[in-house]
């Protein structure tokens, strides 16, 4: 039985590349069917061209490098696990320094501490695993979106950089390759913090840094001394136009 | 038990065969190039860690797409503002296109990002990932009939929006 025009139009709109014999036969069954098929083909061609984005060449290299980067991260995890056996404290410990800041949370976290712990537990290990020993090349352009930049002393340590959620909108998640090993740095463009406040959770240690514009948090393992990086981070973040 | 080199080779194949399509799918899903790259890398990191669970190589595409969609829902949909600015999407220079064709494609891109997720996602699965209606139905957990309705409406909305943008039958005979 031949396909009626309304059924044909429905199929044409839902699945124009359908290879069903009845559908293919209907496409050429009359001028009305042919015109409808030709219009659908033109729309489909336009749609396919619009969706066909060029894939960044470095992305596929980064994907292929994931096993090696993951192995590197797992080795670091083993070191931390050894340390954990000797740790006096168990479970979650949050050491809160000076209080008094009212957090402007709008994304489901009740405090910056909440955000730091939640975000790092979710994303921290995966981003660390991407560090491949190569300097990130897009540090300034990515920070420029937030009107910020960093001094060369800090930019020269950035191994991975990506956008991430923060308590007050988008921010930047970086991995720094420091003398102490890989350390996470998250830039929160619109979030105020209590400068120098420390947060301890799992086997990680974090320190908050108030910047001229926005804030940052440095996160590492407890065997690392992330507080030592506080001054460098605080001095390195500048407004985009101020960089010399 | 698969050897480490076999595991690496299997992973390389997954990256080579599906990496580009997953990236394109991710870009149009979240409307942001940087987030799409993150999403794809997260997907492959999770895939690497769970690679032994993939017993049938023929199911790899669906397996990866499922990981990507779950990761998107978990990470980005919940806590990150939506990006619907096409300027945040990496768009290659279509140097071989005529100016009016470029306009048409630019408008098409903007309108794709304006589609509601329930229409955009099945359309991306079909056009970018090459899924059949049955496969989309299985991935989304809805009936094939519902998928076909969503796909039909997606294309109808694109046509309507393009007509409103002034892309009419006079230009390339789209309508």
Q: What structural category do the secondary elements of chain B indicate?
A: mainly alpha
Secondary structure category of chain A: alpha+beta
The beta-strand count of chain B equals 0
Question: Helix and strand string of chain B, N-terminal first?
Answer: HHHHHHH
How many angstroms does the end-to-end distance of chain B come to? 56 Å
What does this entry show, briefly?
Chain A is α+β, with helices and mostly antiparallel strands.
List the helices and strands and how they pair.
The complex is a heterodimer of chains A (244) and B (175).
Chain A: H1 5-14, H2 21-27, H3 31-51, H4 57-64, H5 66-85, H6 112-128, H7 139-144, E1 148-150, H8 152-155, E2 158-166, E3 169-178, E4 181-188, E5 198-201, E6 204-210, E7 215-221, H9 230-236, E8 237-239
Chain B: H1 4-30, H2 33-49, H3 60-79, H4 99-114, H5 117-127, H6 133-140, H7 144-164
What keywords describe this structure?
heterodimer; A: 244 residues; alpha+beta; 2 domains; 6-stranded antiparallel β-sheet; two-stranded antiparallel ribbon; 8 strands; 41% helix; elongated; B: 175 residues; mainly alpha; Rna Polymerase Sigma Factor, Chain: A; Arc Repressor Mutant, subunit A; 69% helix; disordered C terminus
């Amino acid at each position: 039985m031949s396909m009626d025009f309304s059924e044909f139009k429905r199929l044409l709109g839902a699945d124009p590349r359908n290879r069903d014999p009845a559908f293919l036969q209907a496409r050429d069954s009359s001028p009305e069917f042919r015109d409808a098929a030709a219009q659908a083909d033109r729309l489909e061609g336009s749609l396919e061209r619009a969706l066909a984005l060029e894939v960044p060449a470095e992305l596929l290299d980064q994907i292929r490098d994931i096993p090696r980067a993951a192995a590197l991260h797992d080795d670091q995890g083993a070191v931390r696990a050894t340390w954990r056996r000797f740790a006096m404290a168990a479970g979650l410990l949050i050491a809160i320094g000076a209080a008094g800041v009212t957090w402007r949370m709008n994304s489901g976290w009740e405090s910056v501490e909440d955000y730091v712990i939640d975000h790092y537990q979710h994303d921290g290990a995966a981003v660390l695993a991407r560090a491949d020993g190569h300097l990130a090349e897009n540090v300034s352009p990515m920070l420029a979106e937030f009107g910020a930049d960093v001094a060369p002393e800090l930019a020269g340590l950035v191994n991975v950089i990506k956008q991430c959620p923060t308590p007050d909108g988008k921010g930047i998640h970086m991995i720094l390759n420091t003398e102490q090993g890989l350390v996470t740095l998250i830039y929160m463009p619109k979030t105020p913090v209590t400068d120098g406040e420390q947060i301890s959770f799992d086997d990680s240690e974090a320190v908050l840094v108030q910047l001229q514009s926005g804030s940052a948090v440095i996160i590492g393992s407890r065997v690392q001394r992330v507080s030592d990086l506080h001054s460098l981070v605080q001095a390195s973040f500048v407004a985009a136009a101020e960089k010399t | 038990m698969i050897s480490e080199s076999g595991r690496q080779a299997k992973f390389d194949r997954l990256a080579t065969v599906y990496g580009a399509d997953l990236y394109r799918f991710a870009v149009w899903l979240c409307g942001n190039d940087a987030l799409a790259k993150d999403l794809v890398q997260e997907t492959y990191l999770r895939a690497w860690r769970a690679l032994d669970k993939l017993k049938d190589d023929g199911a790899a595409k669906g397996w990866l797409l499922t990981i990507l969609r779950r990761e998107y829902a978990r990470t980005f949909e919940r806590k990150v503002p939506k990006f619907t600015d096409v300027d945040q999407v990496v768009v290659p220079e279509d140097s071989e296109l005529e100016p009016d064709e470029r306009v048409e494609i630019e408008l098409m891109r903007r309108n794709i990002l304006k589609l509601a997720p329930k229409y955009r996602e099945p359309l991306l699965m079909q056009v970018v990932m090459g899924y059949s209606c049955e496969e989309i139905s299985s991935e989304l957990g809805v009936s094939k009939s519902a998928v076909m309705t969503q796909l039909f409406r997606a294309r109808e909305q694109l046509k309507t929006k393009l007509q409103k943008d002034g892309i009419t039958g006079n230009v390339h005979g789209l309508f």
